[in-house]
Amino acid sequence: MIQLTHAAIDPAALLESVSDNQAGAVLLFLGTVREFTAGEQTSHLNYTAYESMAQSSLLQLEQEAAEQYDIVRIGIVHRLGELSLGEVSVAIAVSSAHRATAYECSRWLIDTLKQRIPIWKQEHYTDGRVEWQHPGMDPNAVAGSLPGLNQAADALRSNLPKEQA
Amino acid sequence: MIQLTHAAIDPAALLESVSDNQAGAVLLFLGTVREFTAGEQTSHLNYTAYESMAQSSLLQLEQEAAEQYDIVRIGIVHRLGELSLGEVSVAIAVSSAHRATAYECSRWLIDTLKQRIPIWKQEHYTDGRVEWQHPGMDPNAVAGSLPGLNQAADALRSNLPKEQA
Amino acid sequence: MTAAADTVSILFFAAAADLVGAERLQLSLAGPLTLAELQQTLFREYPPLAAQAKFLMWAVNEQYAAAQTKLQAGDTIACIPPVSGG
Amino acid sequence: MTAAADTVSILFFAAAADLVGAERLQLSLAGPLTLAELQQTLFREYPPLAAQAKFLMWAVNEQYAAAQTKLQAGDTIACIPPVSGG
């Protein structure tokens, strides 16, 4: 089960999907919405994705994991849209014959997902600030140039000249 | 939630018990009954425990983990009695602000549980053999001296002389 | 969302969409173009995007792509700021 | 399961119970006794248990205990073969 969803994630269903008589260990990782980060209070989150690429790169991730680790089954579900405190943003389930493999594979999956899958988190703080999370980028530099998205989107067309052919 | 139980483990209830707005990561480990081990086919398992000590040493384990790791909540449930293939024998849930802690603490908990908590697994193979699992001990040496447990148990009393006071 | 035969689509996400002021641009290809050339053109038109250039990843048809990738009519290019899923 | 005031209980689990042929023994204390002395006595009475001595752990009142632990009337001693929970 590899899935992007706007509905609440059901961890029990994901666990069920990786259950197998060949497995002696199952590991489920859940990312959840934390209230405080570096002293700042979150009100809620909004996750957005390049959905078609996120879906195909999650499938690619699953395949790479299956090649690297001796696992039985993998399931990944990522939530999109608005999430309240405590809700599950991502769930990764892995089953394997022995537990060492499950821990290694699970950790690799979440670490790589966070580096590679085109999904973005927007923090909404209780003080009203809204901030895209882009590790490495200065949020002020980005926020300072907000040009009123959505009026412009999709309407804008440009016709760029070719550079050096 | 620290618990020994003869009923099927409900992973969703355990996850619920460690859910917290301060947690950004939840990790759930499930030990499950595997069909094949080293080429031998398991029919079912039977788990037995020194229940009062297992309960108190699980509480001790939880406390040691809380001292060593910056975790939010811990839940551990171990199943006892007869388990079919695929069933969950142990469930360990950990929530923490950041995922690295959850992985480390979860791994420490299951590794230490397996070294220390007085619970024993008896393998029942499809060929009819029954074997206590005692890592390090020769199962044949043990199985060869089966003196008909249960007739003797509790009826036996002995009155040993003091050795060197 | 349908593209003319001689155009490419460029998608912007999250803060990149804010910097450009659009989630999608449609461009006519006047001739062969590499991803690097497209980027340079975009950076000239959108200085706020150029200021973040070193942080951006790019995909062509849903695969991360190197700068020298040659673009073809019908391609979908995506400008991908640092991801933060999970 | 009630113990007389001058006795200790010894519990055997899993294969250790099979080796001894009992899950529980009740012993009168004739005087001060250490866990090591109790073990030696048990090993003399139950050679199959003695053969596995090096693998066994022991607990006194639900805590793993060192061999030199002094036993007291009312104590519960447990003979714990290698555990295999999880």
Write the layout of secondary structure elements.
The complex is a heterotetramer, with two copies of chain A (165 residues) and two copies of chain C (86 residues).
Chain A: E1 2-5, H1 11-18, E2 25-32, E3 36-37, E4 40-49, H2 51-68, E5 71-79, E6 81-84, E7 88-96, H3 99-116, E8 119-125, E9 130-133, H4 139-143
Parallel strand pairs in A: 1-5
Antiparallel strand pairs in A: 2-7, 3-4, 4-6, 4-8, 5-7, 8-9
Helix pairs in contact in A: 2-3
Chain C: E1 7-12, H1 14-20, E2 24-28, E3 33-34, H2 35-45, H3 47-51, E4 57-60, E5 63-64, E6 70-71, E7 76-80
What does this structure look like?
Chain A has one domain (2-159): Molybdopterin biosynthesis MoaE subunit (Aldehyde Oxidoreductase, domain 3), CATH 3.90.1170. Chain A has helices at 11-18, 51-68, 99-116, 139-143; strands at 2-5, 25-32, 36-37, 40-49, 71-79, 81-84, 88-96, 119-125, 130-133. Helices cover 30% and strands 35% of the residues of chain A. Chain A is elongated and about 50 Å long. In chain A, helix 2 packs antiparallel against helix 3 (99-116). Chain A has 165 residues and is an alpha+beta fold. In chain A, strands 3, 4, 6, 8 and 9 form a five-stranded antiparallel sheet that branches. With 86 residues, chain C is an alpha+beta fold. Chain C has a single domain, classed as Ubiquitin-like (UB roll) (Roll), CATH 3.10.20.30. Chain C has helices at residues 14-20, 35-45, 47-51; strands at 7-12, 24-28, 33-34, 57-60, 63-64, 70-71, 76-80. In chain C, the strands form two sheets. A five-stranded mixed sheet of chain C has the order 2-1-7-4-5. A two-stranded antiparallel sheet of chain C has the order 3-6. In chain C, a hairpin with a 2-residue loop joins strand 4 (57-60) and strand 5. Chain C is globular and about 35 Å long. The model of chain C has no long low-confidence stretch (mean pLDDT 94). Chains in contact: A-B, A-C, B-D.
